[in-house]
């Protein structure tokens, strides 16, 4: 992040289908990333230990194929949702800018 350790910068987190934006210090950001990394490693170890009955070799391809299917499902369905969310955000931002602008903003072009 850079700067002094107490300097706050904006951090945007996408988690569980939601977007959160907050001001955090470098230490807080590193802690959040560390917790997320640990949670991902725990999930990976749980899924790999669940199918260990037939040996370690077959469980590896299963782990490789699961994220691919999940990512394709998420990207196809989540892309439209993200596009709508972005459009909504941009429209609201435009309205806020127009509301606080001291000059009238002409939206029509002749």
UniProtKB/TrEMBL annotation:
Stretch list, region Disordered: 36-110
Entries under Pfam families matching the protein: Jas_motif, tify
KW Nucleus (keyword) present: yes
GO cellular component: nucleus
Basic and acidic residues biased stretches: 36-46
Domain Tify: 4-38
Localization terms from the record: Nucleus
Single GO BP term: regulation of jasmonic acid mediated signaling pathway
UniProt KW Nucleus keyword: yes
The entry's keywords: Jasmonic acid signaling pathway, Nucleus
Comment block on domains: The jas domain is required for interaction with COI1.
Family, similarity comment: Belongs to the TIFY/JAZ family.
Protein purpose: Repressor of jasmonate responses.
Protein name (database record): Protein TIFY
């Amino acid at each position: 992040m850079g700067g002094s350790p107490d300097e706050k910068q904006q951090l945007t987190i996408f988690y569980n289908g939601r977007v959160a934006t907050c001001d955090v210090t470098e230490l807080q950001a590193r802690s959040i990333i560390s917790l997320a990394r640990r949670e991902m490693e725990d999930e990976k170890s749980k899924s790999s230990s669940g199918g260990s009955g037939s040996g370690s070799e077959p469980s590896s391809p299963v782990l490789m194929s699961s994220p691919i299917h999940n990512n394709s499902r998420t990207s196809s369905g989540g892309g439209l949702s993200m596009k709508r969310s972005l459009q909504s955000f941009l429209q609201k931002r435009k309205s806020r800018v127009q509301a606080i602008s001291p000059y009238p903003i002409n939206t029509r072009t002749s």
